[in-house]
Structures are given as structure tokens and as C-alpha cells.
Amino acid sequence: MKAIIIDDEAKARRILEALLAEHCPDVQVIASADDVPAGVKAINREKPDVVFLDIEMPGYTGFQLLDFFDNISFDIIFTTAYSDHALKAFEVSAIDYLLKPIQIEQLVKAVEKVRKKKNHQLAEKIEALKQNLLENKPAKIALPVADGLLFVKPEDVLYLKAESSYTHIYLQTDRALLVSKTLKEFEKLLDHPHFMRIHRSYLINLNHVKQYVKSDGGHLEMDNGDIVYFSKDKKDELMAAFNSMAG
What we know:
Blueprint: E1 2-6, H1 10-23, E2 28-33, H2 36-46, E3 50-54, E4 75-80, H3 84-92, E5 97-99, H4 104-116, H5 122-134, E6 141-145, E7 148-152, E8 157-163, E9 166-171, E10 176-179, H6 183-189, E11 195-199, E12 202-205, E13 209-213, E14 219-222, E15 227-228, H7 235-246
Parallel strand pairs: 1-2, 1-3, 3-4, 4-5
Antiparallel strand pairs: 6-7, 8-9, 8-12, 9-10, 11-12, 13-14, 14-15
Helix pairs in contact: 3-5
């Protein structure tokens, strides 16, 4: 795999190149650049398979690299020193990234991911990422579907239901998706007061609860008419949330 490194810090470029040489020997660094314009020239000249791209650089940010291309024929792995909040934005946007200082295991995993699957819908992913970085909560989450990724607003999610290592996601559009992520993973990604884990099998959007029904131990009816159940030990927390919403 041919690679280009774009980073304004010479030391960061040298460290990454050394790590790749030692731990990812099939990745050949064919060029490096210290800003986006120089990186664009290198990409056009060398036609890399993957670009390791810093985000915060003088002149142009890493996000603006795609503005210079009509067709994207390469993958991107961002390198960043961003905070935990920002890293969640990367994850919900399905963007590959390396957190500085770069860890060997993380690097090998990112390279392997690129090797196995080309970075589909890169422009859409980065647009979603930019929106998510501006918000206190994710503006859109990327959900893998058969022909690529579906970018969904969290407020359009009614609820999620666990099925082993998969999760069923029910949307306001009456569409249902089966995604190869666990409910626990989605609980971390959708870390917002409107989402509540009410059962080992259910994560719900409180804004889409239509009715609380007391009979048979209690259950919830969602906006689409589906019935979901909550654990006994979650009842007090759930009632407190409903009282808070009632004002």
C-alpha cells in the first residue's frame, strides 16, 4: 500500500513513518508534506492508496483537503490530538483516526481496516464529522447498510433492540435496520439524556415514547406502536425522566 503523510510537524511525520516501517512493512511511505497544498500536489503526483492526514494545520485544515478533488481514489486516516468528545464524533461518523501520540496497536488496526475495505462515502463521512464536531451531541450517526452507510439524525431513532452481537434500529421513517454493533456500543455513541438504556435488550429515545402502560408490570408504547419493556430496577430512573420531561 502506497501512503502519503500530511502533517505540519516534522517530528510527527518522522515518528509515523518509523512506526509504519517497523509495524506495517507493506505500507510504503512515498511522500510527505507539511501542509494541505503541498499534500494535494503529492497526491496528484504519486496516486497513493492511503493518506495519513493531520487535522489542525496552518492555512488549510485537514478537512479541507477534499475540496481540492472531484474524485477521491484514496483512503484517509486522520491523525489527531482531539479530546474525548471529538473522538466520539469520529466514531459516530465512521471515520478512521489515530489519536496522538500514536499507539502501535491502534495504527496496525487502522491500516488493516483500510486494507480490507476501501473508504466508501468519504465525502459524506467527513461532512457528518464536521457537523458532529460542532454539536454537543452527534448531529448524525453513520449506520452500515448493505450498499454503504446511512447517515441518520439521532432524533430520528425511535429505539434500539439487542440481538446477540447485532442491534435492530427502528427509525421514525418506519425503516428498521440490523447493524453489526452491540447495543452497548450504541449506548456509548448515543450518550445523551434523551437516550436511556431501560433493559438489557432496549435503548430508547425518550422523545418517542407515546405511552407508559402500568398493567402487566409496566411497558412502553413507542410512537410507531411497538411495545418495549423495561427492567424493574430501571423503573424509578425512567419515571424520574418522564417527570423531568413533564416539567
